[in-house]
Known about the structure:
Chain A is α/β, with parallel strands linked by helices. Chain A has 12 helices and 12 strands.
Amino acid sequence: MTSANVHRLAVALLAALLVGCHKSGPGETAAGDSSSAARTKIRVGFSQIGAESDWRKANTESIKSEAAARGVELIFSDAQQKKENQIKALRNFIVQDVDVIVLAPVVKTGWEPVLKEIRDAGIPVVLTDRRVENEDLYRTFIGADFVEEGRRAARWLVDATGGKAVIVELEGTPGADPAIDRKKGFHEVIAQYPEMKVIKSQSGEFTRAKGREVMETFLKSPEGPSITALFAHNDDMALGAIQAIEEAGLKPGEDILIVSIDGVYAAFEAMVAGKLNCTVECNPLLGPQLFDTIEDILAGRDVPKWIKTEEGVFTRETAAEDIKHRRY
Amino acid sequence: MPLQSTMIELSRHIVRTLLGIKWALLALALLLAFNAIFTDNFFEIRFQDGHLYGTLIDILNHGSKVAIVAVGMTLVIATAGVDLSVGAIVAISGAVAASLLVERGAPWYVAIVAALVTSLALGLWNGALVVWLRLQPIVATLILMVAGRGVAQLITDGRIITFEDSHLAWFGNGALFALPVPVTMLALVAGVGALLTRRTALGMFIESVGDNEQASRLAGVPDRAVKLFVYTFCGLCAGIAGIIECSYIKAADANNAGQLLELDAILAVVIGGTSLMGGRFFILGSIVGALLMQALTKTLYMLDVSADIAPAPKAIAVVLVCLLQSPAGRELIARWRSRRRGGSA
Amino acid sequence: MAQQEKGGQRMRLPIGRRDIPLIATAIVLAGVYLFGVLTYEHFASWAVVRNLLVDNAFLGIAAVGATFVIISGGIDLSVGSVMAFAGILIAKLVEHAGVHPLAAILIALMAGVLFGTTQGLLIWVFRLPPFLVTLAGLFFMRGAAFVVHSQSIGVRHEFVATTLNETLSLRLPLGSRGIVLPVTVFILLATFAIAWFVLRHVRFGRTVYALGDDAQASALMGLPVGRATVQVYAVSGFLSALAGVVFMLYQQSGDPASCKGLELDAIAAVVIGGTLLTGGIGSVIGTLLGVLILGLIQTLITFQGDLSSWWTRIVAGVLVLLFLVLQRALDALAVSALNTSEES
């Protein structure tokens, strides 16, 4: 499907160049605003962060398939993890006269000028996954609470260890909101237990390879043998770390307890194998909730400022059963 | 007798290379000495599961991956070119291997051969853009750098493909001669590279293309074939690194595999004494450069330097080493020495 | 390239050979724009043109700096990191230290000049390759940006949010809703105008060209090669910091993790604009066209609206390639046409 579009794009590009050579000047083909009135289909512009993880892919697919199921015209733009690309896409959404703009902002700050422009154009904005700083500039936020996810991970660890652990932490990408917030929530809870100590904390950049490399270093440091628990800001880093722990001749899940966040399919597989103890879910399947909300907004109904997504905490004890219901 | 003269020539070459990169070697030695004093059990190595295990081994292991790419990059840079697409090729290579293995059920050796052939073809593509379309190398390879990661994601359908195959996993996790497999792979790649360039006219051709392309063409050097070769070889090296990288985490991570690897490899080459303007090149130097960078990374981890500010000390170390290696730096040192000698006399 | 060096005393057509790549670039740009107009609803609006300028102002300014460096035969890879550093420095000074934004901007610009000068000195005095020095600069400034502050900071200061970003913008009655040009667009245009003038009519500019053409010959001719080299990198440092200021205004925040890889976009824009990486040949007008082409490619992809992440990357790469091929073909065509007209 997409390849057909690419093909069309290429053919049309060549055609246009040929036309260009015949010196036919640019006419005002699109008649401006008249088309939006005649249109019955809802048109939604969606600026996604990128495709950096399985979580993100599941999130994108949920929103795309829900749009298709409801007959909504979705203009999708992938920002390749760059804020400036997102801002560009948002400006073009205004020109394209969309009815609603959906934004998954790559960072909290830096949205005021463009969101003000969108407000002036009278287009409602719905945020998903992550939030922006200024609450006046969007209608509602659908997504998880990263700080709460960090707290949940910490609470599980407190219960599992009886409040006594030597912890190492694999952080996300420096400066990324989920990394900052998950760390904040985790440390907030841990601080109440004097016998729970985070002895090492280093960025694994949310990837398996870095997660494994950093864990190798942790294990070989002088404090290495005393480590009893690992908190990873996402599943991928935990999955990498598991390999490092095995290489060191230790049993992941037994010698070192592991808790991570996201709840991707591979994490459930690791829990079934007994190598991961717990994953705090961060639900990417936001499509249905998102389009319900969009329909509410367009119908003029009030929507809450924050629509929290349903999220659970899964442990390896129930993983064999849970994995049957996982879709991503 | 020819063997003897070869050995003499070879050892002379090695000594010359080592002298050329003495500051990189010195920096590496200083770094290790620093760790010996300040980091407990940095040098601790034990035998486990049939191979050596320790921080130094880790440095060797991870350094080898970058070094393999750096070997290919050395030849490209020697022709006054550069290859920015190696990171993308690493991602594609891993994606091809993992998806063939998991989705198509291909045997592991088919997966690996396919990945390497793909990388070879991508390297050839870079070479073709440089040679026939006469694009400047930085732009020619930028195209694959941008599009290549997309191709890798297309192959994996944007997912991280996990595999359990023990053969494929061996390349990143297994041991050979008590050392991690990547070390042997590096020795192989470097050996082949050295043989091709030092035992045949190829090395001379590469240097002459890098020194002065037009003059070498007039002198009858097949400059186009030389360029096609170096980019293809570099692609192959990146492909091998791609196999190691995906094998290491037993998964193909198209979005993250080989991210920023091109910069690491270029740095390693430059620290190793090869000039970015082309001309003389030092394969061994690039390998030392890669190991130095890896040792630095590891040290910063060990010192709990946070990943966000770690680039700054790395940059300072690189500039210092290159300053000492530069002609002006050497001159400064020589002047300082003679002045001291003059003062004491 | 050989055909440009042959010179053109015998030229009869009003355009010189040096202009051919530029004209080829302009034709392709027009073609791409026309394609958008014919293919997509709403593409033919003033707002698209305005967005192109607003959304690429920071890239354009960074690319001007890259043009200077590349014409001089060097390269600067530190651009993106310097931008991030300037942005977070201003945000930190304004929001956490109570410094007036104007003073903070001045400090950031001075830091850019200082850093650029340092790079230039390393390159000139120690004869280190620019690629290496500025690559180290890329790492160094990224680390430095995180040292200033490890998270992004929103700038809410009245002077930035209102005076700079609203009072100083210009409203034009174009299109149905009218369009607003913010101050950043004027900074962009002024940067291009000044750079054009400097490269064309100031002695420093001519030295830059001579430097890239043949540094040794320039030295023999008595040109201040060393000073010019350092100055080129100082200019690039300044323009990188200025691009950082514009980026800060553009999004009213500073972010130490922003602008990663922007230097490659800038270099791509410069090269697409016909400047040779070997130095000596190029122009800022070409760079402006290059920036617009990269921006237009992104706009097309957004308007297409159904490309997945990977297709976005592939299409972006293929379009750049396609563009380079077209440019090459037009160039060759024009040169042969010029030759025949000279012969007749």
